[in-house]
Write a structure and sequence with these properties.
The chain contains two helices and no strands. By secondary structure, it is mostly helical. The radius of gyration is 18 Å and the shape is elongated.
């Protein structure tokens, strides 16, 4: 089996980017605050990745913005 990097999904030793131990199975249920903190970090990373993609591929990003705007204009409440 190949060695996985510290932050790989299958690695049970821990998360390298947060320094927190990985949740295994169902040892201790995470609190709402921990879940919200992880979700906020994920959303920040996602926004950063989207901004990077928009800078690297401006034509594709513009087309995606236009498609999204069209979807929002034709959406019925």
């Amino acid at each position: 089996m190949p060695d996985l990097p510290d932050n790989a999904p299958g690695n049970a030793e821990g998360c390298a980017d947060t320094g927190e131990p990985a949740q295994s199975g169902g040892d201790i249920p995470e609190t709402d605050a921990e879940r919200r903190r992880r979700r906020a970090q994920f959303l920040r990373d996602l926004a950063e990745a989207r901004a990077l993609r928009a800078r690297v591929q401006p034509r594709r990003a513009k087309a995606a913005r236009l498609r999204h705007a069209m979807r929002m204009r034709t959406f019925r409440w």
